[in-house]
Amino acid sequence: PLEEGMKIEVIAQPRINPIYGFSLNYISIKPVGEGSIKKAADLLKLKLEKEGLFDESRKRHIPRAPEKIGLITSVESAAYVDFIKVLNARWQGVEVHVQNTQVQGDQAVEGLVQAVRYYNQMSSPPDVLVITRGGGSADDLSAFSVEAVVREVASSRIPTLVAVGHEVDISLAELAADVRASTPSNAAEILFPDKLDEKRHLTNISTQLDEIIKYKIEDKSTNLKEILVRLDHGLESKLELKQQQLKQFEILLNSVNPENTLKRGYALVSSKGKLVKSIKQLKPGSDALITMYDGKVKTKVKGV
């Protein structure tokens, strides 16, 4: 967006028409000078804010310690050196894909747009895109507030982290990104935890786990001892109960034991191997066997 009074740089092709005279077919128009660049960025910011490109609700989570990142920057810049240096100091084993692009000048906008598109079209895209450059003048950083770049960052299907300039520099691409970092070094700090801190943290967790396991074992051991004591008591109670029941059964069996009945003067009469329960089973002359508690007597029936 442009407003009257802004200073601009126009690249155009001049023409002279015999009727209309001198004219320019413009190729590009961009604001120049800190005031004009800031004014253009403010106008664009208002436009994109109305579209919701900067809303917090649309921002996504950046994975912690990503395994694969896509880095968009100039490999000749201090930003690239700072990012890689901090990354290597904090973490290892990261797969870094770099798109070497211009980060200022006439070719920067197209390079940044194409780099974002390249990563988004990969069959196996990185976990996060990092777009970064160091500080500079308003004109140096202006490519990161161009509408094409801002929209490309906002539409990326890969989560984005943008770090442009120093702490005080805020580009529109940073506002459109899922996460903004204040500097290239800070971008690496956001993405990757300090490995020494993580080791200390893991050591603390390991110690805590050891204590928890020790406590659990002691607690379970105590519970097991209590269970064993209760089982012993339970088994003793069950055994005593069964012994009492056995004695009762013994008394009951003794009460119906035929031998005890015979001792009281009773006798059993059998004939032909069968117990005689009625006199009708006996006939004169038939053999009979009388069983008493201390022996048996064979006899013959004389009369009934």
Summarize the structure.
This protein is 45% helix and 21% strand. It has 9 helices and 11 strands. The strands form 3 sheets. It has a 5-stranded parallel β-sheet, sandwiched between helices.
Provide structural commentary:
The structure is a single chain. The chain is α/β, with parallel strands linked by helices and 304 residues long. 45% of the residues lie in helices and 21% in strands. It has 9 helices and 11 strands. The protein has helices spanning 34-51, 78-90, 108-120, 138-141, 147-155, 172-176, 184-191, 195-255, 258-263, and strands at 8-17, 21-31, 68-73, 95-100, 128-133, 160-164, 179-180, 268-271, 274-275, 287-292, 295-300. The strands form 3 sheets. It has a 5-stranded parallel beta sheet with strand order 4-3-5-6-7, sandwiched between helices. The N and C termini lie far apart (141 Å).
* Strand neighbour order, sheet with most strands: 4-3-5-6-7
> Which percent band covers the strand fraction?
15-25%
Helix content: 40-55%
The 3D shape can be described as: rod-shaped
Radius of gyration: 51 Å
Distance between the termini: 141 Å
Number of strands: 11
Give average pLDDT, whole number. Answer: 88
Which secondary-structure class do the elements indicate? Answer: alpha/beta
Point out poorly predicted stretches: none
- The DSSP helix count reads 9
Order of helices and strands: EEHEHEHEHHEHEHHHEEEE
Give the biggest sheet: 5 strands, parallel
